[in-house]
């Protein structure tokens, strides 16, 4: 069974709503810039894909993740025609990697004061939308799609409407951790390119409203199903076998075959291990059909938005299906051997009728999630 997406919302470094974000992605614009959120002197890497809403460069404030989340959820709820002043009884599921860790950092390093209750997204969701059924999932980089999987399960169990969201902002501890495990400081993200040098963090939030019965409301697209697993292979190194298993389960749950997939929205982090592992798994599953779907990796323009990345890609994928337009993978010039035979979109946006898409999201510890989407009928 498929579930209708009746509302979408997004905010990222490339746009304050879904229209602006998709327009800039299709134009091949990159959101990378010099790091704004904290002091360059403490780090070897000096770039990131941030949302430029701080008071001044180097000046950070608390609750930025919460602010982006409320923005994206508000957009999606309004788009779906729901009463944004009263979401009581509507489950709101939030996927995140780091929640309000940046606020804790500012408390520890600068003495920023705020009530401990503001570390919980549920507090702001209740105050803003009267949402009384909120849940936060912290499943690393696949958190957004894990939340989507739970949302689909709730609809299957009888819920009429579910709001699913994902959010993350830069934290200095995660930024520093990533630069210590990469051989050279990256200046941009280049997924699947042989000359890539690692990943840079991005910021953003996305939200969708899932409906059991749209009731005459416009439908952006359909979620056929979501598969999740945890192969627990390694803390940071992904396992192609675990990824391939998640992809096959998604195909089975969604009632599709590799040959049915028109678009692959890959995880594509640009790291030295992840891209080869993802390409190896895809080649294993798709086999002779690997040349059929168009393939793109939006992290080349948004950076890695962690728990928000899966749902940001979801709203972009829905727009791709609706318009038959696919953003390019910026910076991909010399693909790794494992990606040979795939039809990566490069240079400029591709135009082609699209019906079914596969969306990948993989996280630390082998937390894998794969969604199958379908264009609105």
TrEMBL record:
InterPro entries: Beta-ketoacyl_synthase, Ketoacyl_synth_C, Ketoacyl_synth_N, PKS_Beta-ketoAc_synthase_dom, Thiolase-like. The keyword Transferase applies. Residues 1-375 form the Ketosynthase family 3 (KS3) domain. It comes from the Bacteria. The keyword Transferase applies. PROSITE patterns: KS3_2. This is Beta-ketoacyl-ACP synthase II. Transmembrane segments: none annotated. Belongs to the thiolase-like superfamily. Beta-ketoacyl-ACP synthases family. It comes from Streptomyces javensis. It holds the Pfam family Ketoacyl-synt_C. Keywords: Transferase.
């Amino acid at each position: 069974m498929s579930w209708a997406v009746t509302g979408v919302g997004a905010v990222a470094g490339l746009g304050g709503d879904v229209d602006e974000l998709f327009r800039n992605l299709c134009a091949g614009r990159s959101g990378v810039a010099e790091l704004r959120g904290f002091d360059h002197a403490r780090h070897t890497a000096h770039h990131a894909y941030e949302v430029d809403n701080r008071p001044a460069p180097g000046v950070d404030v608390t609750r930025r993740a919460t602010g982006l989340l409320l923005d994206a959820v508000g957009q999606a709820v309004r788009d779906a025609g729901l009463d944004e002043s009263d979401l009581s009884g509507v489950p709101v599921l939030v996927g995140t990697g780091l929640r309000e860790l940046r606020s804790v950092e500012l408390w520890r390093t600068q003495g920023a004061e705020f009530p401990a209750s503001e570390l919980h997204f549920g507090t702001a969701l209740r105050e803003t939308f009267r949402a009384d059924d909120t849940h936060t999932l912290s499943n690393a980089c696949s958190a957004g799609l894990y939340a989507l999987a739970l949302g689909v399960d709730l609809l299957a169990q009888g819920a009429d409407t579910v709001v699913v969201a994902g959010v993350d902002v830069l934290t200095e501890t995660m930024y520093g951790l990533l630069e210590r495990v990469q051989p050279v400081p990256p200046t941009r993200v280049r997924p699947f390119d042989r000359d890539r040098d690692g990943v840079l963090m991005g910021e953003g939030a996305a939200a969708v409203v899932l409906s059991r019965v749209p009731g005459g409301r416009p439908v952006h697209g359909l979620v056929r199903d979501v598969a999740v697993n945890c192969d627990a292979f390694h803390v940071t190194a992904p396992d192609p076998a675990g990824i391939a298993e998640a992809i096959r389960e998604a195909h089975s749950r969604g009632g599709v075959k590799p040959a049915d997939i028109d678009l692959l929205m890959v995880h594509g982090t640009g790291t030295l291990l992840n891209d080869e592992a993802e390409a190896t798994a895809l080649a294993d599953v798709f086999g002779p059909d690997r040349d059929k779907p168009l393939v793109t990796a939006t992290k080349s323009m948004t950076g890695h938005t962690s728990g928000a990345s899966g749902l940001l890609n979801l709203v972009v994928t829905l727009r791709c299906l609706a318009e038959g337009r696919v953003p390019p993978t910026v910076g991909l010039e010399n693909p790794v051997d494992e990606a040979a035979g795939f039809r990566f979109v490069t240079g400029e946006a591709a135009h082609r009728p699209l019906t079914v898409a596969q969306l990948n999201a993989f996280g630390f510890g082998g937390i894998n999630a794969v969604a199958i989407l379908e264009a609105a009928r």
